[in-house]
Amino acid sequence: MPATWILGIESSCDETSAAVVRDGNYIASNVVASQIAIHRKFGGVVPEVASRQHLEKVTFVVDKALKDAGLGFDDIDGIAVTVGPGLIGALLVGVAAAKAYAYALEIPLLPVHHLEAHISANFLAHTDLAPPFICLVVSGGHTSLIHLRDHLSYEILGATRDDAAGEAFDKIARVLGLPYPGGPALEELASGGNPQAVKFPRAWLGENSLEFSFSGLKTSVLNYLKRNKKEGREPSLPDVAASFQDAVVDVLVEKTILAARLTGVRKVALAGGVSANSVLRELFQQKADQEGLEFYFPEKKLCTDNAAMVACAGYYHYLVRDFAPLNQEACANYPLIVDKL
First and final CA of the chain: distance in angstroms? Predict the structure, then answer.
């Protein structure tokens, strides 16, 4: 049986990426043009700047991905692209490029949801992993618990009611005077602090709730800092960072383990930018071992936005001939279709 080569394109936020993946699990290339240095001076992603950078980089990353893979356009069987959700201007660039390549090459256009791309990073990291499993997708824009019943068959068990966990990390990092991106900087600061120093609240949201809320925790941290300033005290910022991180991680892990108990699924996985957090990974592994669960997570370079995970997800769309029309639009609030089987 001949190999299936999928070219993936990712431009949902501030990473312009292209990758070539064979048969949904072998990464032949994965090129990422990061915009971190550009956005750092603004303290966060500026959508208009991100869009212009994608325009400048998209054809470059595609050409480099093919060169790194040792392939030509004629070798590619399908073009996978992140359709949404994300920044609309950024998405438009990737979708327009993917449509142009698909049209010119007369090959299928494969529409990928950003969440399913993150989940698919686990298939690249663990070629023996197969559904069903529970996946916590946790990033700057998402905190979602998803039951992957089969490839392209999802059940959304819970999501955040307000801030995503990564968004909360970034906001508290800014308050603590840390540079963009806030998540890694906060983790580094927290490594020198005591996670039990400040008793920040956990939002459990009722018995057996699989939903998340981090706005109250964020407010609690802000109030703690304001109160200390008003009373003339200088709080230990490493202790604040560590205690905040501990509160977030505690809820993320406990609710994922609860989801496994409620569904009877014996495998859990982690995905998304925040899944690179070492404290989160360690607590997940510890709790999974206690519950007798198998635990999976991608290597750190596959946690952040990249096109290899998009190409992997696109492969499963290709197998069931779920092709997008050439008038496919980018969508900032693109819904996750729960069953395409």
Answer: 22
